[in-house]
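**Backbone description:**
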Amino acid sequence: MRLRRTLLAAALAAALFGSPVRAQEPVDWVDPFIGTTNFGTTNPGAVTPNGMMAVVPFNVMGSDTNRYDKDARWWSTPYEYHNKFFTGFAHGALSGVGCPEMGSLLTMATTGELTVDYREYGTAYEDETATPGYYSVMLDKYGILAEATATPRTSAERYTFPAGKGHILLNLGEGLTNESGAMVRRVSATEIEGMKLLGTFCYNPQKVFPVYFVLRVSKTPSASGYWKKQRLMKGVEAEWTPDNGKYKLYTEYGREMAGDDVGYWFTFDDLRAGEQVEVRMGISYVSTENARRNLDAEQPAGTTFDAIREQARARWNEDLGRIRVEGGTAAQQTVFYTALYHALLHPNLVSDVNGEYPLMERSGEVGVTDGERYTVFSLWDTCRNVHQLLTLVYPERQTEMVRSMVEMFEEWGWLPKWELYGRETFTMEGDPAIPVIVDTWMKGLRDFDVATAYESMRKSATTPGAQNPLRPDIDPYVERGYIPLGFYAKDLAGDTSVSHALEYYVADAALSLLADSLGKKEDAALFRERSSGYKHYYCPEFGTFRPITHKGGFLSPFDPQAGENFTAAPGFHEGSAWNYTFYVPHDVEGLTRLMGGKRQFVEKLQMVFDEGLYDPANEPDIAYAYLFSRFRGEEWRTQKETRRLLDKYFTTAPDGIPGNDDTGTMSAWAVFTMLGLYPDCPGEPYYTLTAPTFDRVEIDTDGGTLVIERHGEGYIRKMTLGDKPLKNYRILHGELLKGGTLTFELQTDK
């Protein structure tokens, strides 16, 4: 039986009885196992906030005892909670993504006779422990305690062996990536270096890039060498090759090794019972030299494993401790701090300690930053709340991320959409960097080149489709105000024209705000007018958005529920018409008029929740519950639905995230909602208020400490900001930070 030791017994008891709990350090509330099943795609590995390195247990290959196997189905994460077969630690893995990538450089410890076939050396395991920056597990077959921790760019593993012969393996042939090819070279008896090719994220065959590594072991091995899987031969050729189709061990070769399925092994013949062998690894996306620099800088000679572990814990305590909550149950505190933890994993560092990083879409070329360069911009997801959370609580990091985006434009000519280690994958819809940058600017973070930023946004909003990789279907959008079916995707089952257009409307609405802020009145009017084009898609017959054919009429036949559960439906991406129809956050008033007024709008929106048409794991409808608060007298519905959604979908169980975390987006929704405020429209500097979860919250911000207090239970009776009563449930960012304590008085009746 596998055990998890992530919370103190007292906290667990408090959770069971729903009682208030004593204060602990923030890391003590985090349970990294939350979201590791139900396709949440998180993992319990060791990582630092927004770090390049993540050391993750790899348990998705090699055994039919696993419930989910990466080679048997679509799979995008190196770990699944219910799987039982451990094949090593992956390095540099991602969290909360929907496509396979980055889980590679697999290290493993074994005992007995050497085998390098993961199907043979993999093992069942027990006694898993995870906390921010640390993971440990007992490997059943070998009696080895395996532990892992991390710095921003490096990892440390510690293996406690039984007496006898033991081995450390580095498998470069397997991993989560769809790309293949690697090289490894012996530097000394205790050090190797090399690279592995990664990429093809979301099945983009040319979007590949290398990860470089330097690996060191703490004990001089008795023997070491390479392995390589030999190709399958036939006929006479096969008769001459004893390793035909098998893993070949190279015991007398000491130069470098390259191939699709290669690795390196260290053997220790004389291990004492309880002896520990450590593995230290530095990675870089620039060069092996930089991987070594990263390792030497972040793990100076003499740095112990326990010291690295404590440093990682301290980093997490510092970041998580910028928000301090009081009250609630142990379960609620665990949900909150785990969600905050997940929201701080991406975007992550790509620059090395010397400032070097891979230039955007200029493979093989290197840039240098005097700050930090970030990557993994899953912007269709994170434009909605993750970056707003960073802007509020971690503004120095958000500023560096915006600078990274603007620099990508300078290097490549376009802003990122779904960028991964210097390659643009073009995954998902829209032009999502625009609302992120605009939101940052409108909230007062302005230490970046806004002129270049505006140039980049205007370019993607005006360049014809044939020359526009971000908006390839912009031509009819400009000419007609909408995108017809079949313009870009000839296969209507794969057409996402409505989804594309809705994202462009949101982006253009945000761009109009920036243009107005910069005094560009004509541009502001142009983009504001464009953002109203959503009205073309509204169909009074169904009361939803409906795809439009190239002839200008609505698609027929039409089912507004088609596309549920991520099935294909003409016009919509990963959702139904109901998941998209209320996605006009920049013009709720205009959409209300289209639907016939307040009553019709509210009733239809409530029906979406009552009839199960809302998808809690889908970004376009993620803010639906907050729309009720746009209407006086209906604000209680926001409070009811947000509380219900929190209780139902965000729990302390391994499936306690409603599907793919999308690089922290689902988690950021929970963080904001539990705080009692939500950024309701990407690009606009507003929050919609709801009843908070906790009695008192303190948030460190650029404007000082923001205090949120709750008195009573139930629905909001009145709100005050400082000494002033609040009558509006929507509040400006600047007003919130300058207003003093935000107080909610609750009552049981709505």
In short: Residues 1-19 have pLDDT under 50 and may be disordered. The radius of gyration is 26 Å. Residues 497-517 form the longest helix (21 residues).
